[in-house]
Structures are given as C-alpha cells and as structure tokens.
Write a structure and sequence with these properties.
By secondary structure, the chain is mainly α.
C-alpha cells in the first residue's frame, strides 16, 4: 500500500498512541516532583512519531532511513526508561501500564526495523530523484507486471478478474 501522508502510516499512529499513553501515565501521582524523569520519558515518546514524520517528509531514501533509526532509538529509550520504572518501588502501582507500554514500544521498534529493511533492500532512491521519465518507466513496469500476472492467471485457468472501475 502506498501512503501519501505520514498520518496514514500505522507505525506513526502507534507512535502517537505511545506518546499519549506515556503522557497519561506521567500524570499519575508517582511522577509528582520527578520532573527530569517525567520530562525524559515524555520527550523520548514524542520523538518516536516526530522522527517518523520527519523522515517521511524527506526527499531521499537515505534520509528516511536515518530518521527511522532515530525513531527506533527513541522507542528503545522509552523501553529502557520503562524497565527502570519497573525496578523502582515508587512505581509498583503502574506495573500493568508499564508492561503495556513496553509491548507497544517493542512493536513500534519491530515495525520500524521491517520498514528500514524493506527500504534498504529496494532500489528506491527517493522522491528527490524522481523525474517525469523515471515515473513513466516505473508506471510502465507496474503495468507490465500486472499484465503478466493476469496472463499467468488465465494460463492457469483462473477466472479473469473484474476490471477496475
């Protein structure tokens, strides 16, 4: 699936969900007068979605990759801080919440890694390198591949797919 806006990306949406949940957790009484700890985990959580967005808006695949890895690092930072909170008795009432946030941060890390791997293994250089000529070539390749898939289905006796309207 092609995404036109970063807001459509499931991993960006998960990053926003992580930040919102972290902010909700840091509103709890256990975080009162723990300003630096609160600030650090909130900033790391917000950094995840912000770096995904910034990378998406960049013009080259290499820039996207750079920001995906920064976002992944921020997700790791959130997870590390949650591990710390698990070990501090003051936060024992938040054990379930912390566990859920760790799972979400891990999921985001896996998604970012998969996206980065797919970009690294593709020949895509990025939007900045596209010209009218390269766009036409790519469209011709896509059309050819769709036609060949249709021919293969027909050859195998599969029903012809309905035309797109």
């Amino acid at each position: 699936m092609k995404y036109d806006r970063f807001e459509q990306l499931p991993v960006w949406q998960a990053g926003i969900e992580l930040a919102v949940a972290v902010y909700a957790m840091t509103e709890k009484p256990a975080f009162e007068r723990r300003y630096s700890l609160r600030d650090q985990i909130e900033r790391a959580a917000v950094s995840v979605s912000n770096n995904i967005a910034e990378g998406f808006e960049r013009g080259t695949t290499q820039e996207v990759l750079t920001f995906l890895y920064i976002a992944r690092g921020s997700a790791g930072e959130v997870r590390s801080m949650l591990c710390l909170l698990e070990r501090i008795p003051l936060f024992s009432d938040l054990k379930s919440e912390i566990s859920n946030l760790k799972s979400l941060a891990e999921s985001i890390s896996r998604q970012l890694r998969a996206w980065a791997d797919s970009l690294q293994n593709s020949g895509i250089k990025g939007q900045r390198y596209l010209t009218d000529k390269t766009r036409k070539i790519e469209e011709a390749k896509r059309s050819r591949d769709e036609f060949l898939q249709t021919l293969e289905r027909v050859r195998q006796g599969a029903p012809y797919p309905e035309s797109k309207k």
